[in-house]
Each structure stands twice: as structure tokens, then as C-alpha cells.
Amino acid sequence: IEHGTFLDDEALDMMKQRGTFLVPTLMAPEGIQEQIDKGTYIPPPILAKAKAAIAASHHTFQRALAKGVKIGLGTDAAVYAHGRNTEEFHLMVDLGMKPIDALKAGTSADAELLGLADKIGTLEAGKLADVVAVPGDPVENIRQTEHVFFVMKEGVIYKNDRGVTAQ
Fold first, then answer.
1. 3-state secondary structure the chain
2. Which of 37, 110, 139, 156 is the most core-located residue (most Cβ within 10 A)?
3. Count of beta carbons in the 10 Å neighbourhood of residue 95
4. How far apart are the C-alpha atoms of 151 and 48, rounded to whole Å?
5. Which value, to the nearest 10 degrees, does the dihedral of the CA atoms of residues 131, 25, 3, 47 take?
6. Counting Cβ atoms within 10 Å, is residue 64 exposed (0-12), middle (13-18) or buried (19+)?
7. Which tens digits make up the pLDDT trace of 43-92?
8. What are the C-alpha distances in Å from 76 to residues 50, 86, 126?
9. How far apart are CA 115 and CA 132, in angstroms?
10. Is the pLDDT of residue 165 over 70?
11. Of residues 36, 31, 22, 16, the one with CA closest to residue 73
């Protein structure tokens, strides 16, 4: 379920029971809130709905987290500037998710959700060599995920801002 903004407890309980994932796309309401804060004109009926959705999305995420619903990480890049997708990690943490679980939401949980856990999502022999590196420890400071300096996809290095050599 993408967004899941107005999910009630019954729906969340059913998701938990069936192993259904929630991909909350928290950057979407964040982007809308930024537009509101900048004073961007939004027609009154849409503004009212946007404000309700922003509040509900946070509350729904926290209830899903408390119930143990599987959570994946995804974004909705149409309502904010491209390139900010990694901010989804800190939004999850800000709403109560443990940093290690936010990292898993964007890796192993997403791999499971996509049916690709046998190929991606964890660093294991036999899986595709998809790796990113960030400064410091993102478990200590999840915002480190916003400063990727190394990217490897299927064993090919696409970004290497620090001269890291692959082994």
C-alpha cells in the first residue's frame, strides 16, 4: 500500500496479519508542507485536504510502526525537488522508527516487497553488488544517508568521491 494516509486500525491489523507492506512516502506530505510554508497558493479545498493528509500520514505511520506492519521505503518525487529522496530515512526516524529499521526499510524490506530478496537488499555472497557508502554511521545519525559518496551497482562503480577502491 503506497501512501496509506488514511488507513484505520482495522486496515493496519489486516496488513499486519497478511504481511502487506506500507510504503508511506513521507516526503510527499513534507513537500506539500514546504509549499504551504512558502505561501504557495493552493486552492482552499485542496489546502484543507492537504493539511488533513499531512497530519494523518504521520499518525498512520506511527500506528503502523507500533502494530509491526511491514514498512518499505519509497518516495513521491513529484511534489518536491528531485534528489531529496534520502530524506525519507530521517522522516521515518523522526516519527519513531529505529535508524537500523529505517535502513532495512530501504534495503532488505524493499527487496522482499519487490520479490527480489534473493538478489538484492543485503550484502551477501551471490547477490548483486549494489552498495552505497556514506560518511560516519547512519545508525548513529540517519541523516548521513543524505551524503552518499560511493555508489556501486552490480559490481560497477558509478560514483567514487573519496577514491575508495573496491576489493
1. CECCCCCCHHHHHHHHHHCCEEECCCHHHHHHHHHHHHCCCCCHHHHHHHHHHHHHHHHHHHHHHHHCCEECCCCCCCCCCCCCCCHHHHHHHHCCCCHHHHHHHCCHHHHHHCCCCCCCCCCCCCCCCCEEECCCCCCCCHHHHHCCCEEEECCEEEEECCCCCCC
2. 110
3. 17
4. 41
5. -170
6. buried
7. 999 999 999 999 999 999 999 999 999 999 998 777 788 888 999 999 99
8. 15, 12, 31
9. 21
10. no
11. 22
- Long-range CB contacts for residues 14-22, cutoff 8 Å, separation at least 24: 15/64, 15/69, 15/70, 16/67, 16/68, 16/69, 19/70, 20/69, 20/70, 21/69, 21/70, 21/71, 21/72, 21/109, 21/112, 21/113, 22/61, 22/64, 22/69, 22/70, 22/71, 22/72
Residue with grid cell 488514511, as numbered in its chain: 6
Between the alpha carbon of residue 60 and those of residues 4, 5, 64, the distances in Å are: 7, 6, 6
Confidence band, pLDDT 50/70/90 cuts, at residue 164: low
Whether 22 contacts 64, CB under 8 Å: yes
Question: What is the C-alpha to C-alpha distance for residues 109 and 121, in angstroms, rounded to an integer?
Answer: 7
How much is the pTM? 0.91
The three cell numbers of residue 80 are 518536491
